[in-house]
Amino acid sequence: MRACEFTMRHYREILDKTRKIHQIVPFCQLSFRKKKKYQVLLRHDIDNSLHNALEMARCEKELGVKATYFVQLHCDDYPAGSAEGVRIIRELRDLGHEIGLHYDPSYYTAIEKSFGDGIKSDLRDLSEIAGRPVVSVSPHLPLLHGQEERMPGSVKYRAMDPVFVNGEYKYLSDSNGVFREGCFCTHLTNRRNYCFLVHPVWWTTEGSRWQEKMVSQAELGCLVVRGRYRAKIDLYESIMKKRNEYDKRFAEMLKGRK
Predict the structure, then answer these.
(1) Residue 13 lies in a domain
(2) What is the mean pLDDT of residues 106-132?
(3) Same domain, 248 and 159
(4) Both 160 and 229 in a single domain?
(5) For residue 251, what are the domain limits?
(6) Same domain, 154 and 34
């Protein structure tokens, strides 16, 4: 195996090595019963881009791997509730992955909702977007918030429960593009369970340092936004070509409402 680096090539190598000695599962398929193989609970927090997540999800599909993708509904960087967002989230689902909620308590504070009311609303909305019940949740920047978190009964799995963070499962994360205990591949044995937290942005974007990857992600995000505006311009141009026809239809619609 090549030197450890944050690239899709190395990520594929990690998964290929892992699946030979572990059962890789999303939260919704984990089992605490005695197993023939130890488990790797594979988790993705989507903080920057649904497109990055989709690239990673397609790679995992090719390798026969399933993961939990935790989606933010109120992220500044991607519109989960837009038509495009719904399409991507449902493609993640159709690739066999679980959709979970990446909740942000600071949003509930901003809209003056209690934690309980806020997360119930988010679970309902994301379940509608995903087309199936959302039963797994993970917090966004958990150390920056102090709200009391009481989960609805519909939540079956909390990603930061002690059992998944160095309890029965050894927790390894690439948060901030840094491995605090070495790359995932350096830990694999056939004698324990793991929980891998993988952020797609670090693996799917160019750059050798996390700061460079964030700049690359910003540039990719700009391309996505430009593409949306290009599509909007094309749409408006097509409408303007039929302006007279649409004006007549609009007048007839108003007449019918009298």
Answers:
(1) yes
(2) 94
(3) no
(4) no
(5) 213-256
(6) yes
Structure-block tokens of residue 50: 């649904």
Confidence of residue 1 (pLDDT cuts 50, 70, 90): very low
Domain match, 245 and 178 both: no
% of the chain surpassing 90 pLDDT? 63
Residue with tokens 């309890």: 167
Residue count (the chain):
258
Contact 174, 197 (CB under 8 A): yes
Q: How many whole angstroms separate alpha carbon 124 and alpha carbon 122?
A: 5
Q: Which of 6-15, 146-155, 158-167, 201-210 has the lowest mean pLDDT?
A: 146-155
Examine residue 2 and state whether it is found in any structural domain, yes or no: no
Does 242 fall in a domain? yes
Q: Looking at 95-168, list the stretches that DSSP marks H as alpha helix, in order from N- to C-terminal side.
A: 105-110, 115-130
Kindly state the tokens that stand for 38. Answer: 């130890």
What does the pLDDT read at residue 189? 80
What is the C-alpha separation between 209 and 189, in angstroms, rounded? 28
Q: How confident is the model at residue 146 (pLDDT cuts 50, 70, 90)?
A: low
Indicate if 119 and 197 belong to the same structural domain.
yes
Provide mean pLDDT across the span 63-70.
97
What is the number of alpha carbons within 13 Å of residue 169 lying toward its C-beta? 27
Number of separate domains in the chain: 2
pTM of the model: 0.89
Q: Are residues 158 and 240 located together in one domain of the fold?
A: no
Q: Tokens in use for 96?
A: 């066999």
